[in-house]
């Protein structure tokens, strides 16, 4: 099933009698996703409206992320967050996963740059925020609801985004000698100062990485001050700007499982002491990615966040979702997808 218009999409969903799995580029389904008949969104493409002067882009959900990047770059702009995705990612997949890279610490997540959505719910109704809204969904913040909903509440057909100017200059500082645990105080130090950091991370073989963006003179001055501030943590040198791309790209699928752990920065040292060397820390988002043998559940101390298996064996979440969150999710599911078309039973 590969609808080319929103009308066709609504028709397909209305007529569906068995579960559907909404698919963009198919670059990163989680374990347990994709079991229903694929509903391929990649024909629903195209920029509907782009007004660079008002920093607004409206785009159909199946449009490749790369096309969006190129369209904006031609006007010296970018999405007003850091979209992350593998080759083939669609902008709908980015929105549905709230995929947000290291700039999150400064610019916010995908959901913060999303200003409008159109989607088709499990009954085949077209819903959009702003104008006509179904009477039984009035009161929901539909944009926030759909960002990160992972195709469970509806099929996004069109998304409106805020855009931002491309930063003229980028500089990366690296502390190459630090392991993951030693990197945390250095990264926290950088984030806690007046340096307007737009990325703070750790990668094996690269050490701690801190990114500064902006006008050339400002970046130069902040880099000098930050270098001096970080010197007590270890050797500081100029890093490779291309490393930011590796930060999430090295989350490769393999025979092993990949776990994503979200925690408070203060809890990270205890968590890291229970794990093998991580494959990355995205410290602006307080994210730890770690590879574990297939099927292994990490033995973690009590902490305030959660750990989720995002690649490999069957789905797993630690600790299990709390009853209140589970109840809210069930209620939303019942409201937007009462027939269980998107991943439930029909
Ligand atoms: C660097 C990096 C960072 C990432 N960060 C995150 C993150 O913070 N959070 C996260 O969850 N994932 C994250 N991901 C994975 C992300 O899911 C994919 O990279 C990509 O953005 C998904 O695009 P896709 O078109 O391939 O979607 P797919 O892999 O096809 O689908 C992914 C999910 O989105 C749903 N979906 C796709 N299109 C639509 C649509 N039009 N309407 C409704 N639902 C739809 C699917 O049902 C599925 O649940 C990250 C990936 C990378 C490489």
From TrEMBL:
Stretches the record annotates as Disordered: 15-38
Keyword terms, alphabetized: FAD, Flavoprotein
Protein's organism: Paracoccus liaowanqingii
InterPro entries membership: FAD-bd_PCMH, FAD-bd_PCMH-like_sf, FAD-bd_PCMH_sub2, FAD-linked_Oxase-like_C, Oxid_FAD_bind_N
GO MF terms held by the record: catalytic activity; FAD binding
Pfam families membership: FAD_binding_4
Protein name (database record): FAD-binding protein
Keyword Cell division attached: no
Ranges of compositional bias, category Gly residues: 23-37
FAD-binding PCMH-type domain mapped to chain residues: 1-166
């Amino acid at each position: 099933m590969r609808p080319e218009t929103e009308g066709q999409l609504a028709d397909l969903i209305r007529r569906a009698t068995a579960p559907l799995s909404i698919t963009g580029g198919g670059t990163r389904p989680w374990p347990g996703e994709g079991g229903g008949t694929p509903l391929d969104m990649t024909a629903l493409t195209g920029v509907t409206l782009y007004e660079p002067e008002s920093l607004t882009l409206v785009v159909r959900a199946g449009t490749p992320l790369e096309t969006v990047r190129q369209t904006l770059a031609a006007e010296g702009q970018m999405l007003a967050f850091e979209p992350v995705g593998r080759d083939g990612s669609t902008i709908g997949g980015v929105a549905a996963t709230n995929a947000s890279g290291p700039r999150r610490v400064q610019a916010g997540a995908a959901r913060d740059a999303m200003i409008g959505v159109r989607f088709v719910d499990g009954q085949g109704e077209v819903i959009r925020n702003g104008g006509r809204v179904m009477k039984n969904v009035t009161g929901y913040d539909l944009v926030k609801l759909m960002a990160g909903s992972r195709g469970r509440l509806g099929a996004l057909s069109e998304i409106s985004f805020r855009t931002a100017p491309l930063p003229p200059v980028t500089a990366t500082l690296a502390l190459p000698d630090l392991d993951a645990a030693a990197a945390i105080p250095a990264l926290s130090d950088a984030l806690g100062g007046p340096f307007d950091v737009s990325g703070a991370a750790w990668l094996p073989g690269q050490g701690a990485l801190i990114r500064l963006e902006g006008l050339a003179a400002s970046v130069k001055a902040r880099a000098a001050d930050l270098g001096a501030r970080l010197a007590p943590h270890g050797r500081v040198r100029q890093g490779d700007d291309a490393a930011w791309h590796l930060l999430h790209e090295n989350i490769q699928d393999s025979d092993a499982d990949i776990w994503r752990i979200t925690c408070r920065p203060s809890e990270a040292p205890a968590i890291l002491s229970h794990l093998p060397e991580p494959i990355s820390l995205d410290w602006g988002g307080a994210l730890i990615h770690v590879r574990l043998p297939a099927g292994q559940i990490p033995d973690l101390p009590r902490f305030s966040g959660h750990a989720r298996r995002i690649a490999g064996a069957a789905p797993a979440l630690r600790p299990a979702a709390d009853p209140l969150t589970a109840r809210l999710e069930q209620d939303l599911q019942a409201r937007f997808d009462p027939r269980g078309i998107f991943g439930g039973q029909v």
